[in-house]
What we know:
mainly alpha
Amino acid sequence: MFRRLYDWTLRWAGSRHAETALGVVSLVESSVFPIPADVLFIPMCLSRPERAMRYALIATVTSVLGGVLGWLIGMYAFDILARPLLEFYGKMAAFESLRSGTGDTAILLMLVTSGLSHLPPMKVVTILSGVVAFDLKLFILSAIVARGGRFFLLGWLLKHFGVKIVDFIERRFPWIALGLAVVLTAVWLVLKGL
Length: 194
């Protein structure tokens, strides 16, 4: 099933409706869809590098809106919508594990790492944020920073280095994202302590 979804998503990258598809996939990926927007974003940037920043903006805005949708599902419709989705994707155990040990700092760290590298999956973190009533303004700000940082950096790299950078990103991006998340969390903790 996931292979068919992946192939279907990838076909949209070459269509004349690619920007709309990118927006839709970015929106639903943050709350319900199992395929990351990168499946569209990367081929689109490689085929039209002059539009990479435009694609990054579309993906960022719609991804943040999708995150807010996930937060709303967690806050107001967990048992009706989120629980069946998490069970369908086999993410319920991961969700319960995250839920049991979360505070604001943990949620913020997960939002940043999820937004940058999909670890843990974005849909799990957005729904969890709503369930624990994480501050919506801070949620939106962190989503803008993490998702915007990811898409704009990735778009810039693809625009300037093309296919050569894809292999490097695939192998090392989670570690780079984790390092950045640790730095951002440390800055947040220092600012919170002031």
